[in-house]
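Ticket #4471: structure output looks truncated?

Reporter: J.K.
Steps to reproduce: submitted the chain below (167 residues) through the standard prediction queue, then opened the result file.
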Amino acid sequence: MVKMYKPVKVPKAIAKMLYADETVVAKIRQSRLKRLFTPDSIFVTNHRVILYAPQAMGLRKTIEDYRYEDMANFKAERGILFSTIIITQRFMGNDLVLTALPKGKADNIARIIHEGIRFYSNNPNPQTGYTPQAGQATDDPLKVLQLRYARGEINQQQYEEMRKTLE
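Returned output as attached by the reporter:
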């Protein structure tokens, strides 16, 4: 039931700051109507949302990361052409406001972010980051079992017992 995402091209500055078990699952670039030459990009991973804002024709960059566990509320505003995502931070932090997002892509990003917030609110101390879910079931139950073991959802003894039952 794990959706496989296409690899996302990530700038070196972002790639250097990713955790060992972190993967970028989606990227969206703001409309050029907001900033003509260097629009901001938003990278959504299984642990956090990273805002990448190049400045001075790309010579300077501002990178902000927002962990799902620090996010409280989620709001999406949909316009005719563009969408805005507003995420309220816990602990009185500034809201994360993602503006001028292309409408079609924003819906996918919004779904992934919402799933991440929900995962971390239900699992305050997860062993691994969340994995975005798809509506498709996998054909091989053994692969599902291996994924559950790899994520830490079941221990080795449970894995061995279930594996023997499946074989």
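Triage note (M.O.): checked the attachment and the full token line is present. The chain has two domains: 12-122, 137-167.
Status: closed, working as intended.
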